[in-house]
Model the fold of this input.
Amino acid sequence: MSSELLCNCFFHSDGNCLVMSNRFILFFLVVFMTTQEKIEEMRELKQRLLEGGGKKRMEKQHQEGKMGARERLEGLFDADTFQELNLFAKHRCHSFGMEEKELAGDGVVTGIGCIDGKQVFAASQDFTVAGGSVGEVHATKICEVMEMALRCGSPFILINDSGGARIQEGIDALSGYGRIFYRNVQMSGVVPQISIIAGPCAGGAAYSPALTDFIIMTQNAGRLFITGPQVIKEVTGEEISAEALGGAYAQSTYSGNVHFVVKDDVEALAVCKKLLSFLPSNNMEDAPDIGNGELVFAPDPALNTLIPDSPRTPYDVKDVILSVIDNRDFLEIQREFAPNAVIGLARINGKSVGIVANQPNCKAGVLDIDSSDKIARFVRFCNAFNIPLVTFVDVPGFMPGVQQEYGGIIRHGAKMLYAYSSATVPKVTVILRKAYGGAYLAMCSKDLHCDRVAAWPTAEVAVMGAEGAVGIVYRDEIKKAGDTKQARTEFIEKYEKEFSNPFCGAARTLIDDVIEPQDTRKYLSLALESLRNKRETCPQKKHGLIPL
Done:
């Protein structure tokens, strides 16, 4: 029945109009629409919703160097694999004139797809719709896709580009954030969680990325802070720009909140894909293995001359890392933060491994508050997702100083001891040069249940450096010799020969082997292969108490 004929049915023959409500008329119009008319109506509605905030707002997004919410997802997922969820979701706010506003998808795009064939769930906030603000339904959409990721054992990615909580929705908006935080915690250690900061992410919104495993942030558009410059000025009187406060440089270098800094959305998506390639989908899977089963030993003679003759001369530990991994392909994490420690993901014989190393090029590779936190957090991540750990040691000790002590270096250093001790994944350590005092223990020593410990001939394993030690153990002898430089040098050489070398530890089975540097790749390959089926049980408990 056509709509014209239906309307004629609402009049008597004498022309008097029947009294019917508009809603009742609309009901009959919909009921008597043809199938094709219904399809066309759905197409029009979908097209309007898929345009988000409209062409003008999208153009502004592009002018600011940002991709749209759906463009980001298109660039992230394999072609034709993304299935959007809850496109027709609507907000339920009736305050401040909100009942008259249609917010496409309530400002967030959620769904599921494949990235390099791996199933992944994602949510991408749409800044063109109400500034990507988080309201009740917006949060519900994100929570639902998070719950699906948890049930399916798949990684979850949240692309943040939001003006914050939707003020018009009041406590419902705050409740939405709380529900997201709760699910972040439930998913932690079960499936990998990655946050991309591609726009503003301020206030309470910043805590969800902080609860995820990795944060990728764009240089120009990304902003991450709890209180903005204006609030800080009003409360403390300090003046600072948004970039200096919450930009990529500040949040990666000073706070260490950001793990990867990228120039734009395109690079952010590329880094996200590469990161996922090293990770299992969930904590029940082994680390990815793309090898063919063959062990590649590939000796590197350059390593035999890498360590300088002088113990005070620095070198770049990344030269060691790149020489022993597959294809020199190393994804360094938190490069800008605490550079005296190096962490990252790589492959050895096709299997993912986590790399931890001291960096003699920066602060002599000493452990301080920031580097301790950096290493401990990474070790716990690798352990949660069954990624074996390879540790390269060249550490003179923990950083001395009043500020380090007041800042809690004891507590932060203890995090490393806790992280390594509680890790049950295969653990292999190679001592390159210095390994002094408590820092030697903290860098995954045999006493923390490291599975294999090897040392180069250049290794110096001792309570402290030879120069400091001789002043204590040979104090009387040095005095008798007149406390000359020559006398000290002789006793230093004697101490190094008798105590500060890898053979003392090897004699006590605390070092499994002293190897030629060029054979490091071979040692790691065989050790990791022998530990492939490692199983370790821990005492039954609700959870341990890491020294936070």
The chain is about 40% helix and 15% strand. The longest strand covers residues 427-436. The longest helix spans residues 136-152.
